[in-house]
Design a protein that fits this description.
Layout: E1 11-15, E2 24-27, E3 30-40, E4 49-56, E5 62-68, E6 72-76, E7 79-85, E8 105-107, E9 110-114, E10 120-125, H1 129-140, E11 145-152, E12 155-163
Antiparallel strand pairs: 1-6, 2-3, 3-4, 4-5, 7-11, 8-9, 9-10, 11-12
Length: 168
């Protein structure tokens, strides 16, 4: 049994022909979501080739790759985690994700998170652009927020947020 954790690989191999649109694949060393793919034959003795077009899940940059359909490609292990964003003076609230209860504030462009076991987590940046501004405005307005982060290949980034349910 392999566990995704300290020292574990950030990817798993998959035959190119098994990849699907909206799935994930490594293109040019970056974790990407597949937005389009096509298969074509290349000549009398050639192998079927798969043309993959993906967007980097962290930068949204468009990347492309072509590979024989029988070859293995690396598929990133992508996880989504929901953290609670609350006032430092507020009590931590427990939600349905058992290993994560978060207490947070925003400091120097980073969100200061605390995992349920008390371990601080301060390496997730407040996102740039509209999403970061919306998180900050809602946080400053006193709202309790749930921030969803995506992680893959040793990188992690906030991708969305919503107001935490009341009365929990």
């Amino acid at each position: 049994d392999f566990q995704a954790g300290s020292g574990a690989s950030h990817t798993v191999p998959a035959q190119c022909s098994t990849l699907r649109k909206n799935g994930f694949v490594m293109i040019k060393g970056r974790p990407c979501k597949i937005i389009d793919m096509s298969t074509s034959k290349t000549g009398k003795h050639g192998h079927a080739k798969v043309h993959l077009i993906g967007t980097d899940i962290f930068t949204s940059k468009k990347l492309e790759d072509i590979s024989p359909s029988t070859h293995n490609m690396d598929v990133p292990i992508v996880t989504r985690t929901e953290y609670q964003l609350v006032r430092p003076s507020a009590r931590c609230l427990s939600y349905s994700i058992p290993e994560i209860v978060i207490q947070v504030n925003i400091d120097d462009g980073f969100m200061n998170l605390m995992i349920q076991d008390g371990t601080p987590k301060d390496d997730v940046r407040l996102p740039e652009g509209d999403l970061g501004k919306e998180i900050e405005v809602n946080f400053e307005d006193g709202k309790d927020l749930l921030v969803t982060c995506v992680s893959a290949c040793g990188e992690e980034q906030a991708v969305s947020f919503k107001e935490a349910p009341k009365g929990t």
